[in-house]
Write a structure and sequence with these properties.
Elements: H1 11-39, H2 42-45, H3 57-85, H4 94-122, H5 137-174
């Protein structure tokens, strides 16, 4: 059987980073979707398929957020392990990786909320019209915020990982 290890450290460290990064992303996604559902409950009740038999819009939003956080949370977690801990260069602490993930989440939410504010103020769509399921203002606001959230999180995650890689390179040069 083939056995592949991401790092040369105990699995418990790798697993704790994966779980911690995912937990930060999941908690953010749940909080984010809790105010999305208050702006436009139909964002989840009409324009998403039923999920696990949940009828309450707030619980449905939380369930969708939890489900949606699995992929991005674990991908970012794996990337943090590989970029921050793999190889012979000095390792970034898991707490620094968690703090960086929290910074990614905060930056993402600032941009996402800003896009919703902009849509509310201008009454205009930020993205192509075909990306919106409905022309009502609440749906334009929530859809804009969700699309912005996905795009911003990918961008800020990449920036974070580049910073981690650069930090490790600088530390390696000092040693």
């Amino acid at each position: 059987m083939l056995h592949v290890r991401l790092t040369d450290e105990p699995r418990s460290v790798t697993y704790s980073i994966l779980a911690g990064v995912w937990a930060i992303v999941a908690l953010y996604a749940i909080a984010h979707d809790q105010y999305i559902v208050r702006i436009a409950p139909e964002h989840f009740t009409i324009y998403h398929e039923p999920l696990w038999g949940i009828a309450n819009p707030k619980w449905l939003a939380a369930a969708y957020a939890l489900r949606a956080s699995i992929g991005p949370g674990f991908v970012l977690g794996f990337a943090c392990v590989i970029v921050g801990r793999n190889g012979s260069r000095p390792k970034v602490s898991k707490w620094a990786l968690f703090a960086g993930t929290a910074a990614v989440v905060a930056a993402t939410e600032i941009v996402s909320a800003g896009s919703g504010w902009w849509t509310d103020r201008t009454k205009r769509e930020l993205f192509p019209h075909a990306w919106y399921p409905d022309a009502t203002l609440p749906l334009r606001i929530t859809t804009t915020m969700q699309i912005t959230c996905y795009l911003a999180s990918a961008f800020f995650s990449l920036v974070f990982l580049l910073i981690v890689n650069r930090q490790r390179s600088r530390l390696a040069l000092k040693n």
